[in-house]
What does this fold into?
Amino acid sequence: NAGVMQNPRHLVRRRGQEARLRCSPMKGHSHVYWYRQLPEEGLKFMVYLQKENIIDESGMPKERFSAEFPKEGPSILRIQQVVRGDSAAYFCASSTIVKNTEAFFGQGTRLTVV
Amino acid sequence: AQTVTQSQPEMSVQEAETVTLSCTYDTSESDYYLFWYKQPPSRQMILVIRQEAYKQQNATENRFSVNFQKAAKSFSLKISDSQLGDAAMYFCAYRSALTQGGSEKLVFGKGTKLTVNP
It folds into this structure.
């Protein structure tokens, strides 16, 4: 049973480019969470999605960031016109529809903006 | 909004000894969950232990146990018989049981870096 798969593991982008981070949840999981971890910090919630729906985006920056979880395929976190401050590790976690069960994390994508 | 505070940026312990990592949190809710996650250099977030707030009994998982003091809003992690493989960042996390719109997002502390000395 494959875990949560994130790719790429490492991504380097120049300032002004777009970054696309992918997350394939565990089999049978329909809920996806994205978190950001800045250097020397804990993880901070960004967005919660179910298939084809954004449920909670209270942690998403208002500009340049977007997320989707289509009916088919992985969840995508998209950052447009990246800036140096976007450099961080981005984690995805997935869970089932059953309440209060554990969410499983992927290994994260390390984004470096140069 | 809930907050989680880990007041020890770094801790060290001798192999085979016991270490306790501190965590306090702030919430006005009565029903919630608390977690300790381990993050080794590989970056993988690994769930170490979980505590339901409605349970008075402290959770244990092998060498890992917690001291949950609900009135004091304290949730410390004790690692017994420390091993070299325990070296990692440890994060305390909070999750509300009152899921607004179904969101079960976690609120994390800043972490404690644990070093295990041979």
